[in-house]
Amino acid sequence: MRASAPYMEWAKSRPRPRIDLAGSNLLACTLEDLPGARDAVDVAGESPEGWRPLVERIARAHGVDPARVATAGGCSGANFLALAGLLEANDEVLVESPFYDPLPAAVRLLGGRIVYFPRRLEDGFDVDPGIVAAAVTPRTRLLVLTNPHNPSGTLVSPDRLQELVRLAERQGFTILFDEVYRDVVHDARPAPAATLSPACVSTSSLTKAYGLAALRCGWVLATAELARKIRRSRDVVDVWSPIPSDRLSVLAFDRLDVLAARARALVETNLGRVTAWLAETPRLECAVPRATLAFPRIRGVDDAAPFADRLFKRTGVAVAPGHFFGAPAHFRIAFGGEPAKVAEGLELIGKELEEA
Question: Crossing angle of helices 256-279/339-355, nearest 10°?
């Protein structure tokens, strides 16, 4: 079965913008941002079950046994391997909408049958457990959620999350939580969902919250049994991670306080600015973001893609059109980058909205 992820194809092939509010990574680290990085690279070693020092540090950071950790190539790799370990052909999978495009694409590639359910702007893009419960059938194998939500940057409220977990336990399905933006949340950060119940699986990476996308350090937290299945799935994908990447990732975990301080300074500056700007921009309707993403809707517009195209051509500012996420009236702003460029980009978006 052929699968594609149109958003990722667009993200990789689009023209280089002057101000990029479409790419969703945190501002990339240099070697100087990670103390000891230049001395840490060594090509020796092997990691057929995940390089042990890295597995141990991931486990320690999340309060789980190392047997419950499977490593992967970034969070996208972790999502794919987790899905491969969970799904059989024709299994029914509930997927949120708006969605992060590569997740349903991976489900399709693995032969799953997708049933979409809405996360609504009017509800702050929270998940309604009643809507999910109504979509569950005896064939439901999996529920796929991003938390924080991609593209809106919002969190599932704690009470609703607990209700979803209880529903999964009663009905016998699994919830896959893509938590790659979880560490971007610096106040009232939720615990990894995998620590709440055996019915939950968590995926993440060092990418979005720490600016280390190039290391491709991702992981899955699951039960020990499922983690073993995921490692076997990796045997037919890429076998194991490059050792230099794993060694630098260990160094990153050992210096996570330094990286977290750098990230917090970026995130708090940009999040405050974006939140204030949204409140002062009446043409837009938007749920209040908690991560480095916002997903505004232009009032009275059914398709924001022409606006995004015009904005790029006139100003060099890139945002991601909402049709890639199943919500064409919206566009996604990603604000993990350099604060001065984020501020300039917001100003130019505002001017373009006034002229539109």
Answer: 20
